[in-house]
Amino acid sequence: MLLKKIDNTVDIITRSLDLAEMKNNNNKVKNLSKFFSEINQLQKDISSLQKEFSKRGLIVSIDLNIKLFNIKIKNLTDLIDHGTIPTEREFIDIKNSLVNSKYKFTENWKEMVRERIKPVINLLTIVKDLFWNDNQAIFIIKKLNNLYSVQPSTKSFDELEDLISQGTGIITNLHLNDTIIEFLQKVFDNKATVSDLSPQVLVWLEENDLKDSLKLSFS
Question: Which of 38, 121, 131, 155 is the most exposed place for a label (fewest CB within 10 A)?
Fold first, then answer.
């Protein structure tokens, strides 16, 4: 609705200019149209991200004063209604407020990814080393780490859930309970001792043909 009004106003402004004025103001009209297209796209992006995060019970504080933002937009459109083409300085802060709000979602996405993938990657790294660089574990670790550099979207959220599910599946198939996980973490950190070789751990090592792979040394 806002873009339609802007487009109509731009047409009116363009028709009201004589050829000389049109030549001088052509860039301003183009910039105005481009600006409102960018604003419209940013608003759509933020709305889509809010829905995407909300679907997963995630609330993001975007620090955007909606009332003040709407006032700025109204002041801008009032200028246009009166035949004035706003300067870049008059609308750049409006765009920046939306850009900063969108960036908040990116920050929250990276923080959430870090929290979700860290325990999975830790265990997959141990599995990779135990099972002679297991290719599937290596692939999932790489794909999970790549999620830091992508933008939040339906696709990236779905990919995160899918990769965590695959990683968890590998761990589940190895029957890793808390005791085994604690032991493997100690092995990974070079902190495992003979006292950590409980009957449960020894059974698990034997079931997975890892007894001969385990080496303990004096510190």
Answer: 155
